[in-house]
Amino acid sequence: MDNIFEKLHKLNKHFQTSSDQPPNERFLQRIVKLNEEVGELCEAALCEVDQDQRVKDKETDFDAELADVIICALMLSTNRQRNIEDEINKKLDKILTRLNIS
After folding, report:
1. Within 10 Å of residue 46's Cβ, how many Cβ atoms?
2. Which helix (H) or strand (E) holds 78?
3. Computed from CA positions of residues 41, 42, 46, 52, in that sequence, does the dihedral angle turn out positive or negative?
4. 20 to 30 A from 89, CA-CA: which of 4, 20, 40, 74?
């Protein structure tokens, strides 16, 4: 995961230096981008279940779309006060406890 976060921080730095957008606008833009990628993931899921579900000019790749969603979500975690890895671990512990899984 360290390699992934290193790349995410490079990407975040690029976006910070290549744009005059204030941080709040960049944050909202990332939320919109995440929503777009979730839509593409849903479309890929529909195609995976039923190829006739959607007729597209391009092939859909569920795994690539899932990666896009994860990247967009993790990009939202950059410049936050809390560590996203810690938050994910806490959330997983909570779910495992609720489901009584050890």
Report:
1. 15
2. none
3. negative
4. 40
Q: Which residue is associated with the tokens 């489901």?
A: 99
CATH number of the domain to which 24 belongs: 1.10.287
Range of the domain at 11: 2-98
The position carrying tokens 């790749």 is: 61
Long-range pairs of 56-65 with CB within 8 A, sequence gap ≥ 24? 65/37, 65/40, 65/41
How many Å separate Cα 32 from the centre of its chain? 11
Q: How far is CA 53 from CA 13, 42, 78, 90, in A?
A: 39, 11, 36, 38
Query: Exposed (0-12), middle (13-18) or buried (19+): which is 30, by Cβ within 10 Å?
Result: middle
- The C-alpha angle 99, 62, 31, rounded to 5 degrees, equals 75
Residue 78 identity: T
Please state the domain count of the chain.
1
Q: Name the pTM for this structure.
A: 0.86
Q: What confidence score (pLDDT) does residue 23 get?
A: 87
